[in-house]
Amino acid sequence: MRILDRSVYVGPSLYARFPVIRLELDLGALESWPTGRLGPQFVTALAAALPGLAEHGCSYREPGGFLRRMREGEGTWLGHVLEHVALELQNIAGEAVTFGKTRSAGPPGVYTVVYEYAQRDEGIAAGELALRLLCSLLPPQLQPRDNVPEGWDFAAARDQFIRFAQRRALGPSTAALVRAAEARDIPWLRLNDQSLVQLGHGKYQQRIQATVTGRTPHISVELASDKEETNKILAGLGLPVPQQELVQSETQAVRAARRIGFPVVTKPYNGNHGRGISIRLTSEEEVAHGFAVAREHSRSVIVESFLEGDDHRLLVVNGELVAATRRTPGHVVGDGELTVAQLIDVVNQDPRRGVGHEKVLTRLELDAQALKMLERAALSADAVPAVGQVVYLRSTANLSTGGTATDVTDVIHPDNREMAERAVRAIGLDVGGVDFLSKNITESYRSIGGGICEVNAAPGFRMHVAPSEGTARDVAAPVIDMLFPAGASARVPIAAITGTNGKTTTARMLAHITKMGGYTPGLTTTDGVYIDGQRTVSGDMTGPVSARMVLADPQIDIAVLETARGGLLRAGMGVNEVNVGAVLNVQPDHLGLKGIDTLEQLAEVKRIVVEVATDCAVLNADDALVLRMSGYTEAKHICYVTLNPQHTLVREHIRAGGRACALEAGVNGQMITLYDKSGHIPLLWTHLIPATLEGRATHNVQNAMFAAAMAFSLGIKLDAIRQALRTFDSTFFQAPGRMNVFSEHPFKVLFDYGHNAHAVGVMADLAQRLDVSGRRIVLLAGPGDRRDEDLVAIAHAVAGRFDHYICRRDDALRERAPDEVPRIQAAALRAAGVPEQMISVIPDEQEAIAAALNMGRPGDLLLIFADALVRSWKQITKFKPVGTTAADAPAAPLSAPQADVGAAARQQAETPLPEFSLEGLIRDERGVRYAPEAED
């Protein structure tokens, strides 16, 4: 049994709307060994290792259902068992994850195992530990040799996993704040591996690190860390504080203790979490030792008077006390029979105690500090305390060292409440914790005494949200209310766009519209991330990483996310929901990759974008696969986009008050028209949009319609939409590789990134509609990772439409031979009736472009499909035609076509494309496939 492949989905995917891990698991010979055949001993051993499995309902939907499933009949297969074990391991580490599903992946014994996770590394480790545990419980003859090391102990591995998970999980305080934000529907992003979290998106964001907020003044944090200055400030305001002195040597510490008077306390000058503190020191020897302990954490040490009373933590948020807790150091109580060590074991059996922050309480440890406390009490680990004798194992009451917490918020005296609020305001903290010693918190410090030990700038919330005794307090909600007052924005509008072709242009158009509408957009595209129109990161940025990058930018107030198939299949979406989601089309491309073999499967992947749309799903009504997606969205509105004003379904949708964007014919041309709530809104003539080449580039007309429909659904004003579309052109600067036109040579160049049959066919159609007095020349290629039939389809999309064809390859061979792709396409062109003399095979892209440019003559049109966009565009613009001078006039602007498009092209266009088969292709000695030429 082994894991063949793993995918970690950070957001909505084919499997769930939330983060999940997908494993491709090969059971091997264990396919013949379901749990029923493995026998009851296997199920019993697994249930003993993970008792929590008894609560899993599985298909029975009741506690015990999963164990019942394993025992009844033939049982269930180990892929399904691994799913439940991976979930339970995360549960014992403190994560509330429940979702999982396991399905056969096709080949016998191979399963797709999907399970929810809360933290990436923890989820991955859970799957690996689950596999090892299952292998360790198998009969010896079935155990894989390399999966279970000799002497492996699950209990030790489990505890190690819990600690591993807790080091990477959000701390209790941060987790409480995140849960409170979720309750307010405030999105959040984790910004590092610790506790730095962004609440909200874009310009509305607030940041927290544990309980320090972005609004916490730095000077206040520094002041709270300076215990001496804090003591002086509070004393100056008449607040109760102990007498203290700052020392740097053991001798100074002893002298300070004499002046203050025994007993005293020693603690680090700038420590936290109770580290290095020694209390109730009654002799010079103890002070010397306390100084040494504190010195391990700080160069300077504070010696202060010891105050009698219980340790209380008073939490103040935004100037108001929200919780008060009495803390008791970790201890055991004698029964006259058990030793201290045995009493510790008994206490640790409390199901509320766990490793670290795993549970409400932390296990007691018999470590060096505990032994020191026992020594002070004239006891040892083997001593038997008297009945009722309290034996302390720690000098401080921190929960992380086994202490307990009792909520006393409802009984704190008003004077003590006011004192805590004044102390935190005096230091200047928005969130502060006051450590206060008092014999009785229900009585005023004015009458019974007590004092403030320190003020904490990053107080922990664990003791308040999960006290050992008393009422749990929701202390995180006041922090969220402080950061996001009622009515404050936390989200930016998000638009996501997917489809086979047109995504980048539509995304750029929409971003341009939002900028015209007064927004500061964040845009992700195939060539980079743009913030307010400026590219900040280059590269293909259409996955979840770039989405989070945009939403983390404090400048943006709207996000436009181009969302590609690859990112969805690899890691899911980067956001849980979008306001507007659009699917432009579903065409054959990338089929045969990552398990997507059919158009229907590809449509299911792209459908994710509209499944998570909340306000509006914008769908291409002219694409049957996209049209069917209307049944899968829960958005408030569906907006159909159609080039056919007679579309029956769209017409009925409009009559029912639905939203649509249609192309309508008029006296002056074609009008992009919006419909909403039975209203008819003429938007813009297509010939007024520069990117449509006076309306002839139908694909950009459609892209503009999608951009307009999405902008309208985002609430952007109509005038901004109109103005933006009228100022959006198809220059390389604004839309690189998207129907760019260069007319500075005696011939014209049409430059595009089209890399599938549909996109190439659209551009070929456009080339036929343009006015060309000379020849039409095309330079085509196809990505090496596409199927052979896809490369052939690209060739068929241009066959019979041009006077000359140049076939090349991309720089990235993608496991193809150097000239394999161009030879496949050249063979397809020949099979389609293109004469041999009209075909050139020039594999290198730069050489192929150079050949095309040198071939160009006045009046010609060169349609160049490029891969390396920037390099190729520079090559085109810097090209100097042979024999030209500065006085030579550039080619005329692109305009309407003339009747004569060239005899050869016309003759080819009238010839139907024959069926093309790859069977005639053979390989040469280099492994390159080619079609043998006919004999002369």
Describe the structure.
This protein has 936 residues and is an alpha/beta fold. It is built from 32 helices and 40 strands. The strands form 9 sheets. It has an 11-stranded mixed sheet with strand order 25-24-23-26-22-27-28-29-30-31-32, with helices on both faces. It has a 6-stranded mixed sheet with strand order 33-34-38-35-36-37, with helices on both faces. Strands 19-14-13-20-21 form a 5-stranded antiparallel sheet. β3 (100-104) and β4 (110-116) form a beta hairpin. α4 (78-92) packs across α5 (120-137). The longest helix has 18 residues, at 120-137. Residues 895-936 have low confidence and may be disordered.
Mean pLDDT: 89
State the helical fraction: 25-40%
Cα radius of gyration in angstroms: 36 Å
Report the major sheet: 11 strands, mixed
Distance between the termini: 60 Å
Strand tally is 40
Give the overall silhouette: elongated
Strand order of the largest sheet: 25-24-23-26-22-27-28-29-30-31-32
Q: What proportion strand?
A: 15-25%
Helix segment count?
32
